Amino acid sequence: MQLFDVYPINDITIEKAEGSNVWDDKGTQYLDLYGGHAVISIGHTHPHYVKRLTDQLQKVGFYSNSIRIPLQQQLAAKLGKISGKEDYQLFLCNSGAEANENALKLASFHNGKKKVIAFKKSFHGRTSLAVAVTDNPKIVAPINETDNVVFLPLEDEAALEAAFKQYEVSSVIIEGIQGVGGIRVASASFLQKIRSLCDANNAVFIADSVQCGYGRSGKFFSHDYAGVNADIYTMAKGMGNGFPIGGIIIAPHIQPSYGLLGTTFGGNHLACAAALAVLEVIEKENLIENAAKVGNYLIEELKKFPQVLEVRGRGLMIGIELPESLAHVKKDLLFKHKIFTGEAKPNVIRLLPSLALTIEHANEFLAAFKKELANN
């Protein structure tokens, strides 16, 4: 049997990882500024994380949600404290797509409506509803197509107001910072407008924080820069530092009932242990503050390069837009300088490193980046 060929891959095999570095099967060291797509939030193989998972596995790795799992309540309490959303409710699942699926479904259950507003260049996942609200026809199968979704330009308040007048809106889903869309930041005023329109029209504000949440922006949720609360926040990637876990936190006015949502693997013992370890390290090592400090440093330094068209983002979620003539720089950073980065089409380098990234690591990247631009 062969693997189903759906990913273009680099011919690199990683065999060891620690902190912000990884090593391949030949012993070559790489600087990881991609974090497995914003997943590695506290650094690879963090000792506290490894111990938490190992200790839990020696007790019980899994049992279903038919029994009491105290780790779930511990996770809810810690997440509420660190995020500042202590009066919210937590539902646990396994991935970002699942989180968005459940958020959209819960919103529709709550208000009995079905029209969803999403935005151009959005990415919310690859499953049924999640892909339907994703602005990429190439990954939307015919069975996923629906007229229940309206795509609007990001930051167009007039279009948003018109849509609310035209449709019975169930929910608005928006990334605080679009990831796949090229690191495009939703402004505070736009998020505030969404909040006010949802309040006035009994609609649910869904803050997709799968990639831009969990401290990556320099606040726990990047939407927090707007000073308003969403009704539902969706989470995954950095939540488990590589262990599959996702979740939604739900405002208190949205009431649960038996059978409304459900999951087999969501909130299992190992997943909760991983997520607790992540929050404990974020809190103890002040990683949200570090993300803001190192991220701001990188952004300001990157703005000094005349060849860079634009630097976008917040904290350690950074997009570097290059001209087409420099489209090869990402590959050169990997194969010539041994630095992993991400990308957004057509020519945006994405930086999504561990929140524990140091200034020294940032300077290592900046030196390599400077060298590549000087050579072109």
Verbal overview:
- This protein is about 35% helix and about 20% strand.
- β16 and β17 (about 350) form a beta hairpin.
- The protein is globular.
- The mean pLDDT is about 95.
- With about 375 residues, the protein is α/β, with parallel strands linked by helices.
- The strands form four sheets. The protein has a seven-stranded mixed β-sheet, sandwiched between helices.
- SSE topology string: EEEHHHEHEHEHEEEHEEEHHEEHEEEH
Q: Looking at the structure, what is the overall shape?
A: globular
> Beta-strand level of the residues, as a percent range?
15-25%
User: Can you give the helix content as a percent range?
Assistant: 25-40%
- End-to-end separation in angstroms reads 44 Å
Q: Kindly state the number of beta strands.
A: 17
Rg to the nearest angstrom? Answer: 20 Å
Q: How many alpha or pi helices?
A: 11
Strand order of the largest sheet: 4-12-11-10-7-5-6
Structural class estimated from helices and strands: alpha/beta
What's the overall average pLDDT, rounded?
97
Give the biggest sheet.
7 strands, mixed
Q: Extract low-pLDDT stretches.
A: none
